[in-house]
Amino acid sequence: MSNLLEPVDALRRINAWVALNHPNRLPFVRMGARSDTIQRFERRLGRKLPPCLRQLYAAHDGQPEGAISLLLNQRWLPLDLVVVAWEDLCFRYGCNEDGASDDDARCLATLVWSATWLPLFGSPRGDHYCVELSADRPDRHGRIIWFLYDEPDRPVVAPSISELLSRIARGLDTGRWQLDEVYDGLCD
């Protein structure tokens, strides 16, 4: 994948595009999370973040409230909101932290929600783009899933956060992506 950017580099290019084309909408991203903040987050989550996500959050801890959404109407969530959203979704859909459920048929067989999905992006209505952290399923680990709270399908939108952010950066560079005024976010 010669066009694949590291997530921090892709985000730097996206941020530069926003600064050039929408300077009145800054800041686009927050300052990076401190190392102890990331460690506290990982303890609460009960697992380590993949290295690419650790680097991404160390560079920028999500987006501030009111920023142009990174993807459609979904803002990239700061770590404190990621864990709140994750805990809420696990509670709402009956998933325990180990990925099991009080009612396995409801949670896992229908794939309503899995505790191995970490919501990285969130919309005001409760939709999320999530990274899958299934260590026991290497074929699924790291892929980005679109969780629509009112739809049964859970489409995979990218094989990794690197691919997703690279797609956005390349799209902005080529003019295929732009700011959608209705969503107040970047889209193709």
Describe this structure in words.
This protein has 188 residues and is an alpha+beta fold. The chain is built from six helices and seven strands; from the N terminus they run H-H-H-E-H-H-E-E-E-E-H-E-E. The protein has helices at 7-21, 35-45, 51-59, 79-92, 104-109, 161-174, and strands at 75-76, 117-122, 128-132, 144-147, 156-158, 178-180, 185-187. The strands form two sheets. It has a five-stranded antiparallel sheet with strand order 1-2-3-4-5. Helix 1 packs parallel to helix 6. The radius of gyration is 16 Å and the shape is globular. The two termini are 21 Å apart. Residues 97-109 have low confidence and may be disordered.
Low-confidence stretches: 97-109
Tally of distinct domains = 1
Q: Tell me the span between the first and last alpha carbons.
A: 21 Å
Using the coordinates above, name the CATH class. Answer: Alpha Beta
Biggest sheet features: 5 strands, antiparallel
Mean of pLDDT:
89
Strand order of the largest sheet: 1-2-3-4-5
Helix and strand sequence: HHHEHHEEEEHEE
Classification by helices and strands: alpha+beta
Rounded Rg: 16 Å
Portion in strands? 5-15%
